[in-house]
Amino acid sequence: MKKIISVIISCILVVSAGTAAFAADGRSFSDTEGTAYEEAAEYLETEGILAGFPDGSFRPEQLISRAEACALVSRMLDASESELEAGASAAASSFNDVNENNWFASYIGYCAQKGFVQGYEDGSVRPQQQISLNEFATMVCRVAGDSDSSLGGTWPSNYMESAEERGLLEGLVNLDPSADGDKDLGRGNAAIIAYNYEKSQDSEDNPGEDDPSDNPGDDPSDNPSDEPSDNPLESFSGRALGIVTETGMTVNDSGDQVGFLTFMMGDGTYNLLTTSAAKDK
């Protein structure tokens, strides 16, 4: 019961602080409409990943903290209530600057348990500290499956290179990934990175969905069944073929009974033969 109350209090604190108020009317935010942030901001708000403020703004230039980044990632992955409850307890026991009742405890704990975020040597995780482009790109790359061992190399260049290859850094506003990695990240650019990740997941779940050329069945030349045949009976379906003109039975030179059927179909006349073994005499 204590954990449930903590989660409820956390939600109230977030809303009252103005950091997660939803504008669920589906309209554009007052400060992102017509900007490079618009598509990402609207998508994340619609999906319940990163919301706007009660005044109808999104505040894309407002810096995002490490705690808020963990909340964004947790919602992006649709963390379950049980995972978040376990995360709050884990964060409180792992980091000396997190209390289980903090609104962000569950999110930081969830991300730490998944290996998306790490603490500092002094035992802190510094939830209120602004997160840099390098740090947030690293988090999202880890969400995508990267790790220190899988990438090798040196941080942050190893993760930034992977983020570039994955398309996570496309469309950033007033940020050059090669030069501005240490700069603190705003909500708008965080939204763009998260949106790029979501789009990459959609394309992996639906490969070739928008590219008809990826389906060989769309090209008759790739489908042997669409090629014309010299055998007019190849596509015989068992339904009426035409007009039967003659039927009969005879015995061939091998002593086998042969039944024949002559019929007309289209401009041609065709014969069907059936053979059965002769009975012992």
What does the model show?
The protein is α+β, with helices and mostly antiparallel strands and 281 residues long. 36% of the residues lie in helices and 10% in strands. Helix 6 (133-143) crosses helix 8. The longest helix is centred in the C-terminal third of the chain and has 19 residues, at 187-205. The chain is elongated, with a radius of gyration of 33 Å. The termini are far apart.
State the shape: elongated
The SSE string, one letter per element, is: HHHHHHHHHEEE
Helix share, percent: 25-40%
The average pLDDT score comes to 80
Strand order of the largest sheet: 1-2-3
Class by alpha and beta content: alpha+beta
Determine Rg (CA atoms, Å).
Answer: 33 Å
Number of helices: 9
Main beta sheet strand tally, sense and closure:
3 strands, antiparallel
Strand content: 5-15%
**Low-pLDDT runs:** 1-25, 236-241, 277-281
Oligomer: single chain
Count of DSSP strands: 3
The end-to-end distance, rounded to whole angstroms, is: 93 Å
Key descriptive features of the protein:
alpha+beta, 9 helices, 3 strands, 36% helix, elongated
Structure summary:
36% of the residues lie in helices and 10% in strands.
Annotate the secondary structure layout.
Elements: H1 2-16, H2 38-46, H3 66-76, H4 81-94, H5 105-114, H6 133-143, H7 148-151, H8 157-165, H9 187-205, E1 243-251, E2 257-265, E3 268-276
Antiparallel strand pairs: 1-2, 2-3
Helix pairs in contact: 2-9, 3-5, 4-5, 6-8, 6-9
